[in-house]
Amino acid sequence: MRRPVQAALLVLSGLALLRVSLFSDLYLRYVKAGMRPLLIASGAVLLALGVAEAWSWYRRRRHDGDHLPPRTAWLLFLPVLSLALWAPPALGAYTAAREAPKSTTTQPQDFDPLPATSPLPLTLGDFTDRVRQDHTKAIRTRTVQMTGFATPAGHGGGWYLTRLIINCCAADAQSVKVRVYSTPSPKPDTWVTVTGTWHPHGTLGTATAEVALDVHTLKNIHRPTNGYTDALPLG
Protein backbone atom coordinates (compact mmCIF):
# COMPACT_ATOMS: atom_id res chain seq x y z
CA MET A 1 0.00 0.00 0.00
CA ARG A 2 1.26 3.48 -0.83
CA ARG A 3 2.60 5.41 2.15
CA PRO A 4 0.09 8.30 2.02
CA VAL A 5 -2.72 5.76 2.30
CA GLN A 6 -0.99 4.08 5.23
CA ALA A 7 -0.62 7.43 6.96
CA ALA A 8 -4.27 8.31 6.34
CA LEU A 9 -5.45 4.99 7.77
CA LEU A 10 -3.34 5.44 10.89
CA VAL A 11 -4.58 8.99 11.42
CA LEU A 12 -8.23 8.10 10.85
CA SER A 13 -7.95 5.07 13.15
CA GLY A 14 -6.43 7.20 15.89
CA LEU A 15 -9.09 9.89 15.51
CA ALA A 16 -11.86 7.29 15.55
CA LEU A 17 -10.58 5.76 18.79
CA LEU A 18 -10.20 9.16 20.41
CA ARG A 19 -13.68 10.15 19.29
CA VAL A 20 -15.37 7.20 21.01
CA SER A 21 -13.15 7.08 24.11
CA LEU A 22 -11.84 10.59 24.88
CA PHE A 23 -14.59 12.86 23.56
CA SER A 24 -17.64 10.68 24.29
CA ASP A 25 -18.88 7.59 26.13
CA LEU A 26 -19.51 5.64 22.93
CA TYR A 27 -16.75 3.18 23.82
CA LEU A 28 -19.07 1.77 26.50
CA ARG A 29 -21.05 0.16 23.67
CA TYR A 30 -18.13 -2.16 23.02
CA VAL A 31 -15.87 -2.54 26.09
CA LYS A 32 -15.83 -2.16 29.87
CA ALA A 33 -15.34 1.26 31.44
CA GLY A 34 -11.89 0.24 32.70
CA MET A 35 -10.62 -0.03 29.13
CA ARG A 36 -10.93 3.71 28.51
CA PRO A 37 -7.30 4.66 29.37
CA LEU A 38 -6.00 1.95 27.02
CA LEU A 39 -8.25 3.12 24.19
CA ILE A 40 -7.17 6.72 24.63
CA ALA A 41 -3.51 5.70 24.68
CA SER A 42 -3.99 3.51 21.58
CA GLY A 43 -5.73 6.33 19.72
CA ALA A 44 -2.96 8.78 20.60
CA VAL A 45 -0.26 6.32 19.46
CA LEU A 46 -2.01 5.62 16.15
CA LEU A 47 -2.47 9.33 15.53
CA ALA A 48 1.19 10.02 16.29
CA LEU A 49 2.33 7.18 14.02
CA GLY A 50 0.12 8.44 11.22
CA VAL A 51 1.47 11.97 11.49
CA ALA A 52 5.04 10.66 11.62
CA GLU A 53 4.43 8.48 8.55
CA ALA A 54 2.92 11.39 6.65
CA TRP A 55 5.82 13.66 7.54
CA SER A 56 8.36 11.01 6.54
CA TRP A 57 6.62 10.49 3.19
CA TYR A 58 6.44 14.23 2.59
CA ARG A 59 10.22 14.55 3.07
CA ARG A 60 10.98 11.61 0.79
CA ARG A 61 8.19 11.91 -1.75
CA ARG A 62 10.58 12.59 -4.63
CA HIS A 63 12.12 9.17 -4.14
CA ASP A 64 8.84 7.26 -3.95
CA GLY A 65 7.37 5.44 -6.91
CA ASP A 66 4.18 6.58 -8.55
CA HIS A 67 2.38 3.26 -8.24
CA LEU A 68 -1.16 3.50 -6.92
CA PRO A 69 -2.31 1.16 -4.16
CA PRO A 70 -4.48 -1.80 -5.17
CA ARG A 71 -8.19 -1.04 -5.27
CA THR A 72 -8.95 -3.52 -2.50
CA ALA A 73 -6.76 -1.48 -0.14
CA TRP A 74 -9.36 1.28 -0.16
CA LEU A 75 -11.81 -1.11 1.51
CA LEU A 76 -9.77 -0.77 4.68
CA PHE A 77 -11.13 2.75 5.00
CA LEU A 78 -14.71 1.53 5.39
CA PRO A 79 -14.56 0.18 8.98
CA VAL A 80 -12.42 3.12 10.06
CA LEU A 81 -14.80 5.68 8.58
CA SER A 82 -17.73 3.80 10.10
CA LEU A 83 -16.28 4.15 13.59
CA ALA A 84 -15.22 7.74 13.00
CA LEU A 85 -18.50 8.98 11.53
CA TRP A 86 -21.14 6.54 12.76
CA ALA A 87 -20.52 4.39 15.81
CA PRO A 88 -22.33 1.02 15.60
CA PRO A 89 -25.05 0.62 18.26
CA ALA A 90 -24.68 -1.37 21.44
CA LEU A 91 -25.82 -4.97 21.66
CA GLY A 92 -29.45 -5.46 22.58
CA ALA A 93 -32.51 -7.65 22.16
CA TYR A 94 -31.32 -9.23 18.90
CA THR A 95 -28.26 -10.63 20.66
CA ALA A 96 -30.03 -11.51 23.91
CA ALA A 97 -32.81 -13.42 22.13
CA ARG A 98 -30.21 -15.73 20.54
CA GLU A 99 -28.19 -16.44 23.65
CA ALA A 100 -28.85 -18.74 26.57
CA PRO A 101 -29.07 -16.90 29.91
CA LYS A 102 -25.95 -16.70 32.02
CA SER A 103 -25.58 -19.90 34.01
CA THR A 104 -26.06 -19.67 37.78
CA THR A 105 -25.63 -22.18 40.57
CA THR A 106 -28.82 -23.74 41.95
CA GLN A 107 -27.39 -24.88 45.29
CA PRO A 108 -29.20 -23.39 48.34
CA GLN A 109 -27.34 -20.52 49.93
CA ASP A 110 -27.62 -18.38 53.03
CA PHE A 111 -28.76 -14.86 52.20
CA ASP A 112 -28.88 -11.72 54.31
CA PRO A 113 -32.38 -10.64 55.36
CA LEU A 114 -34.09 -8.44 52.79
CA PRO A 115 -34.54 -4.78 53.68
CA ALA A 116 -38.05 -3.66 54.53
CA THR A 117 -38.04 -1.19 51.59
CA SER A 118 -40.99 -1.52 49.24
CA PRO A 119 -40.68 -1.78 46.35
CA LEU A 120 -37.37 -3.53 46.92
CA PRO A 121 -34.66 -2.57 44.35
CA LEU A 122 -32.93 -5.67 42.99
CA THR A 123 -30.67 -6.53 40.11
CA LEU A 124 -31.83 -9.25 37.74
CA GLY A 125 -29.05 -11.51 39.00
CA ASP A 126 -30.03 -11.00 42.65
CA PHE A 127 -33.66 -11.74 41.84
CA THR A 128 -32.63 -14.93 40.03
CA ASP A 129 -30.55 -16.07 43.00
CA ARG A 130 -33.33 -15.34 45.49
CA VAL A 131 -35.89 -17.23 43.42
CA ARG A 132 -33.80 -20.37 42.95
CA GLN A 133 -31.44 -20.50 45.94
CA ASP A 134 -33.05 -18.85 48.97
CA HIS A 135 -34.55 -21.66 51.03
CA THR A 136 -36.26 -19.10 53.32
CA LYS A 137 -38.44 -18.01 50.36
CA ALA A 138 -38.18 -14.41 51.51
CA ILE A 139 -38.96 -13.13 48.02
CA ARG A 140 -42.38 -14.80 47.87
CA THR A 141 -44.59 -11.83 48.79
CA ARG A 142 -42.18 -8.96 48.24
CA THR A 143 -42.76 -6.26 45.66
CA VAL A 144 -39.49 -5.79 43.79
CA GLN A 145 -38.20 -3.19 41.33
CA MET A 146 -35.83 -3.99 38.47
CA THR A 147 -34.45 -2.30 35.36
CA GLY A 148 -33.54 -3.76 31.96
CA PHE A 149 -34.52 -3.81 28.31
CA ALA A 150 -37.31 -5.72 26.62
CA THR A 151 -36.53 -8.89 24.68
CA PRO A 152 -39.11 -11.11 22.92
CA ALA A 153 -39.65 -14.39 24.75
CA GLY A 154 -40.93 -16.49 21.86
CA HIS A 155 -42.77 -19.54 23.16
CA GLY A 156 -44.24 -19.61 26.66
CA GLY A 157 -45.88 -16.21 26.75
CA GLY A 158 -44.72 -12.94 28.25
CA TRP A 159 -41.42 -11.26 27.41
CA TYR A 160 -38.01 -10.92 28.99
CA LEU A 161 -36.58 -8.12 31.07
CA THR A 162 -32.93 -8.42 30.11
CA ARG A 163 -29.45 -7.25 30.94
CA LEU A 164 -26.27 -8.00 28.98
CA ILE A 165 -23.09 -8.33 31.02
CA ILE A 166 -19.55 -8.26 29.64
CA ASN A 167 -16.26 -9.37 31.17
CA CYS A 168 -14.04 -7.50 28.71
CA CYS A 169 -15.85 -6.51 25.53
CA ALA A 170 -19.14 -6.95 23.68
CA ALA A 171 -17.86 -10.18 22.11
CA ASP A 172 -18.13 -12.05 25.44
CA ALA A 173 -21.53 -10.66 26.47
CA GLN A 174 -23.86 -12.91 28.47
CA SER A 175 -27.50 -12.26 29.22
CA VAL A 176 -29.48 -12.25 32.46
CA LYS A 177 -33.24 -12.57 31.91
CA VAL A 178 -36.41 -12.41 33.96
CA ARG A 179 -39.62 -13.46 32.22
CA VAL A 180 -42.37 -10.86 32.57
CA TYR A 181 -46.11 -11.51 32.72
CA SER A 182 -49.25 -9.42 33.23
CA THR A 183 -48.29 -6.55 30.94
CA PRO A 184 -47.88 -6.20 27.15
CA SER A 185 -44.34 -6.28 25.84
CA PRO A 186 -42.72 -2.95 24.96
CA LYS A 187 -40.85 -2.74 21.68
CA PRO A 188 -37.59 -4.76 21.70
CA ASP A 189 -34.64 -2.82 23.15
CA THR A 190 -36.92 -0.46 25.09
CA TRP A 191 -35.41 0.20 28.51
CA VAL A 192 -37.89 0.02 31.37
CA THR A 193 -38.10 -0.04 35.14
CA VAL A 194 -40.75 -2.46 36.43
CA THR A 195 -42.24 -3.30 39.81
CA GLY A 196 -44.00 -6.55 40.59
CA THR A 197 -44.04 -9.81 42.52
CA TRP A 198 -42.65 -13.25 41.79
CA HIS A 199 -44.78 -15.21 39.34
CA PRO A 200 -45.65 -18.38 41.29
CA HIS A 201 -44.55 -21.28 39.15
CA GLY A 202 -42.45 -24.11 40.50
CA THR A 203 -41.07 -24.47 44.02
CA LEU A 204 -39.51 -21.27 45.28
CA GLY A 205 -35.94 -21.70 46.48
CA THR A 206 -35.22 -24.56 44.07
CA ALA A 207 -34.17 -24.97 40.44
CA THR A 208 -37.81 -25.64 39.51
CA ALA A 209 -38.87 -22.08 40.35
CA GLU A 210 -39.45 -19.94 37.27
CA VAL A 211 -37.44 -16.73 37.23
CA ALA A 212 -40.45 -14.61 36.39
CA LEU A 213 -42.36 -11.55 37.52
CA ASP A 214 -45.99 -10.47 37.54
CA VAL A 215 -45.58 -6.80 36.73
CA HIS A 216 -47.70 -4.16 38.46
CA THR A 217 -46.11 -0.99 37.01
CA LEU A 218 -43.85 -0.26 34.07
CA LYS A 219 -41.98 2.94 33.28
CA ASN A 220 -39.98 3.67 30.13
CA ILE A 221 -36.50 5.09 30.77
CA HIS A 222 -33.48 6.13 28.74
CA ARG A 223 -30.75 3.58 28.17
CA PRO A 224 -28.09 4.01 30.88
CA THR A 225 -24.68 5.20 29.77
CA ASN A 226 -23.12 1.89 30.76
CA GLY A 227 -25.74 -0.67 29.80
CA TYR A 228 -23.48 -3.72 30.12
CA THR A 229 -23.91 -4.07 33.88
CA ASP A 230 -26.56 -5.72 36.01
CA ALA A 231 -27.10 -2.61 38.09
CA LEU A 232 -29.78 -1.60 40.55
CA PRO A 233 -32.94 -0.05 39.09
CA LEU A 234 -32.98 3.42 37.63
CA GLY A 235 -35.74 5.82 38.53
Give the neighbour order of strands across the main sheet: 2-3-4-6-5
Poorly predicted ranges (pLDDT <50, ≥5 residues)?
none
**Major β-sheet annotation:** 5 strands, mixed, barrel
**Estimated structural class:** alpha/beta
Measured by DSSP, the beta-strand proportion falls in 15-25%
User: Got a strand count?
Assistant: 6
Number of helices: 5
| Overall body shape | elongated
Report the oligomer: single chain
Which whole number gives the mean pLDDT?
Answer: 87
Task: Please report the distance between the alpha carbons of the first and last residues.
Answer: 53 Å
Give the % helix: 25-40%
Rg over alpha carbons: 24 Å
Reading the helices and strands in chain order gives HHHHEHEEEEE
